[in-house]
Amino acid sequence: MNNRWYGVLAMILGILSFFTGEIVTFIMLCFILMALININTTLKTKYKNDLEQKEK
């Protein structure tokens, strides 16, 4: 998934949390989502660099 879909997911969760009154839970989920996106991006970059190293 690209970053646009993560934004859409965050907006849906934000709207849902607003109506259910779970704003603090939404904020914590956003922190977790940002951390997971960062880990995912780092792993993809490392994997791509490893593939380039093996091709040489």
Keywords:
56 residues, mainly alpha, single chain
- Beta-strand portion reads under 5%
Assembly status: single chain
Question: Which percent range fits the helix content?
Answer: over 70%
How does the helix and strand content classify structurally?
Answer: mainly alpha
- What's the order of the H and E elements? HH
Cα(first) to Cα(last) distance is 29 Å
Q: Which residue ranges are poorly predicted, with pLDDT under 50 across at least 5 consecutive positions?
A: none
Note the total helix count.
2
Largest sheet: none
Total beta strand runs: 0
Question: What integer value in Å does the Rg equal?
Answer: 16 Å
Mean pLDDT: 86
General form: elongated
Structural account:
The protein is mainly α. The protein contains 2 helices and no strands. It has helices at 3-20, 23-55. Helix 1 runs antiparallel to helix 2 (23-55). It starts with a helix and ends with a helix. The mean pLDDT is 86.
Layout of helices and strands:
Blueprint: H1 3-20, H2 23-55
